[in-house]
Amino acid sequence: MAHTRFTSKTFRNNVASVSHTIVQDALLPLLSHAAKHDWVVDLEDIFLRFTYDSTFRVIFGGNSNNLSIELPDNELLKAIDDGTEAMCLKLGKEKKLIEASKIIDKHLFGYIFSKREELNRGVEANDLLAAYMTSHKNPTTSKPTSSTLDDKFLRDTALTFLFAGRDSTGTALTWFFWLISKSPGVEEIILQELKEVLASKHGSGDIGIDEKKASLKVFNAEELKGLVYLHAALCETLRLYPPLPMNRRIVVNEDVLPNGTVVKQGTKILISYYAMARMEWVWGEDCHELKPERWIDETGKLSPEPLTKFFTFNAGIRNCIGKDMAFTQMKVVVASVMFNFEVGLLEGHVVKPKPSLVLHTKHGLKVRIKERASLI
Ligand code: HEM
């Protein structure tokens, strides 16, 4: 059901509109404030708040506002982080995980309860939770039947989406800005692409200048559609810094891998996407470089060839169903932030991965923000 929904036009439009709204109302004002007051900000924290809020609104509907100048504490967010950390460290029965589970249950069962009440009152909703709840309809009345899905199933599903949507895209954005801070050439080409989009939209640069002076520019889904180089740069980031750096599979029936290796039933296979990105025989001698060009063919279109060795979203039947959603979110954030601001890494700040289930940074991404002089 989620698969069908994620590929529907209504869902895609909702993702685009939610992302646009949060960038416009929360992300850019926050960065603008940081620029005016010469704040040092942790972009990883900011991006994780952005992806949490946007994923939350898509799943539960309603509002979630964790991206304001005060950067408020959020009990559920903290519980998800504590719970994940405890699980990664295999502290399954430890107090921290038990406490985190209780808080997660309190919030998620609360949302489920309110949503059910809303639906019973006939409130229209186009979020994912409502879609799950109304997926069992009475064929005559088209109303949800009494045998709606069990609350524990709904809690687990909602938590999966919240976690899958927030951490993956939030860390991808973090690594993107870090890589770009060390690759001014790539940044220049992306900015050029953005300028061209605006120029073609407005026929001449003039309207773009007025628009920029009046307020900060937020790109919409239509403007972001044909940005080949930006898409390629995001794929390059996801190749080098896959948000899920490792995956695991268990052999169901004995089989032979394409290189002749026999794998016995029950064998656990660990696949390191992070290591694969750094293997010369897979990506070539320049595998360590950020090179968006490897994703573009000689006609200037995105080349499908690298996708055959790109498993950041997994492959096959259990691949990621949120891939398009992630690209929509990342593009609106990257284009709007880069167009309006210069992001400078804090001098002396070390950025390196933290070994964990998701490829977070060890110390965050500390930066200073400057408003960019008009590009048009
Ligand atoms: C850059 C962003 C993302 C990356 C790199 C990513 C990566 C992945 C990977 C590697 C898997 C396979 C996991 C496995 O083999 O067990 C997966 C599955 C999944 N992802 Fe994503 N993901 C991203 C964004 C999202 C978003 C935004 C959502 C939705 C809110 C999402 C929802 C899911 C779900 C529901 C699954 C399970 C699919 C299934 O088992 O059939 N992901 N993702």
Automatic annotation (TrEMBL):
Cited Gene3D superfamilies: Cytochrome P450
Sequence intervals crossing the membrane: none
Positions that bind heme: 320
Keyword list, A-Z: Heme, Iron, Metal-binding, Monooxygenase, Oxidoreductase
UniProt-listed Pfam families: p450 (PF00067)
GO biological process: isoquinoline alkaloid biosynthetic process; lipid metabolic process
Record bears the keyword Oxidoreductase: yes
Coiled coil residues, start to end: none
Cofactor(s) the protein requires to work: heme
Protein's name according to its UniProt entry: Cytochrome P450
Organism in which the protein naturally occurs: Papaver atlanticum
Lineage: Eukaryota, Viridiplantae, Streptophyta, Embryophyta, Tracheophyta
